[in-house]
Amino acid sequence: MEFKPRIVAFLCNWCSYTGADLAGTSRMEYKPNVRIIRVMCSGRVEPTFVLKAFANGADGVLICGCHPGDCHYQEGNYRCLRRYLLLQKYIRQIGIEPERLKLEWISASEGKQFAELVNSFTEKIKELGPSKIKDTIRTFA
Amino acid sequence: MEETKPKLKLAVYWAAACGGCCVSVLDVHEKLFDIISAADLVFWPIALDTKYHDVEKMPDGYIDITLFNGAIRNTENEEMAKLLRKKSKILVAYGSCAHLGGIPGLANFTTKDEIFKRVYFESESVVNEKNLIPVPEYKAEEGTLFLPSFYNDVRALSQVTEPDYYLPGCPPQSERLLEVFKAIVSGAELPPKGSVIGAETKTQCDECIRKKTENKRIKKFYRPWEIKDDGITCFMEQGVLCMGPATRAGCGYRCIKGNAPCRGCYGPPPGVPDPGAKMMSAVASIIDEKDPEGINKILEDLADPAGTFYRFSLPVSLIRRKIL
């Protein structure tokens, strides 16, 4: 059976979600593997959200926010960037491929970039194969 | 003559533990006399010569309170956890290891095979010419001998049976144990099953005695020995990692009063499913840098984020072991 990656995407309300919306209203086609969760700001994405997504079976997690300097709340995306870089260090240590977590900046006008990002990220996750996290943490040995 | 009230039956057991929790029970000093005047110790391997088969012979629910310390590392730990659950009216996960997995839980960063390889073959102080490793079953002339089997994963008590309460700490502060004990003896109404007892509901930072400012900004992290602590300012503001933001209060700040940052043994405050993730969030918020390279350079100061943020809680965290 073909592997269909399950990807959780956290998109900020002001730029990235609007960008994804633009991709939709422009009738651009992109891979249907992302499950989008709208948050008010990428700075709202706590490391807990990301780890919970992985623990519940996500094969990849995508976080999108406004470009640096464009945050609706001034600094939220910088906070997100710092959390993301720390999370990368942690997931590497715990044995999760760092490529399974990605942070990209998508503005409200970048519908095309969003569609391309989803396609390339889905491909990347397909290459990596299904995540073993859920099965590993469910069974005690 | 004084009216004789039936005494409580108390048990203390250690699973994968260092022994510190059992000693913390002794740390009540002369108050121990108050405990033994209200309770009979029926099982306590560190101090009494009661055998496992004596516990097996007890009727179910015979023991009033069992303080179970230590993590679940092998079959013996698991069997005793389940046995004591059956024999006890109140089973308390006592100390960080029983509560969260504790220091032994850090073994979840590796595997049974790796541990055996290191311990029996590679360790500098080991001479093992015949390449022997322990086997759980051995047939001798006199009969078959058994050793407990070693698991690949370390678990907290709640992952093998249902404790009634959790009393956190590495080890729990003796004063808090006395409070809990007195509450049980007095017959006061007990908190709902599954509660964390003998601790607060706020974080360490909420009640910390050190001076804090609202806007923490740091450019570099230091190991405690790399700076001269002024003894007054918040550790995080001085760039020293302190688990206070993601740790439950209730220990009496012994570490902080002793000028050492919090290590997080009391576990996460209520509503926090993953203390390490909470800590990552807090740490990332105080870094004063916007450029990815600069941020990474500051993060390099954190030698072992996973081990530091999950020092006591890896087995109960969201990603509870290393993915292989």
Observed structural traits:
heterodimer, A: 141 residues, alpha/beta, Rossmann fold, 43% helix, globular, B: alpha/beta, 3 domains, two-stranded antiparallel sheet, 29% helix
Description:
The complex is a heterodimer of chains A (141) and B (324). Chain A is an alpha/beta fold and 141 residues long. Chain A is 43% helix and 16% strand. Chain A has a single domain (7-136), classed as 3-Layer(aba) Sandwich (Rossmann fold), CATH 3.40.50. In chain A, strands 2-1-3-4 form a four-stranded parallel β-sheet, with helices on both faces. The longest helix of chain A is centred in the middle third of the chain and has 18 residues, at 76-93. Chain A is globular and about 50 Å long. Chain A starts with 6 loop residues before the first strand and ends with a helix. Chain B is α/β, with parallel strands linked by helices and 324 residues long. Chain B folds into three domains: 8-104 and 152-196, 3-Layer(aba) Sandwich (Rossmann fold), CATH 3.40.50.700; 111-151, no CATH class; 204-316, no CATH class. Chain B has a six-stranded parallel β-sheet. The mean pLDDT of chain B is 93. Classes of the chains: A alpha/beta (141), B alpha/beta (324).
Helix fraction of chain A, binned, reads 40-55%
Question: Biggest interface between protein chains, with counts per chain?
Answer: A-B, 30 and 38 residues
The CATH topology name of the largest domain in chain B reads: Rossmann fold
How many domains in all of chain A? 1
CATH class group of the largest domain in chain B = Alpha Beta
- Give average pLDDT of chain B, whole number: 93
**Number of domain units of chain B:** 3
The string of secondary-structure elements of chain A, in order, is EHEHEHEHH
Summarize, please.
The complex is a heterodimer of chains A (141) and B (324). Chain A has 141 residues and is an alpha/beta fold.
What is the topology?
The complex is a heterodimer of chains A (141) and B (324).
Chain A: E1 7-12, H1 16-25, E2 34-39, H2 47-55, E3 60-65, H3 76-93, E4 101-105, H4 111-128, H5 133-138
Parallel strand pairs in A: 1-2, 1-3, 3-4
Chain B: E1 8-14, H1 20-26, H2 32-38, E2 39-43, H3 52-57, E3 63-69, E4 72-74, H4 75-87, E5 88-94, H5 96-100, H6 112-122, E6 137-140, E7 143-146, E8 150-155, E9 165-167, H7 174-186, E10 195-196, H8 204-207, H9 254-257, H10 275-286, H11 292-299, H12 305-309
Parallel strand pairs in B: 1-2, 1-3, 3-5, 5-9, 9-10
Antiparallel strand pairs in B: 4-8, 6-7
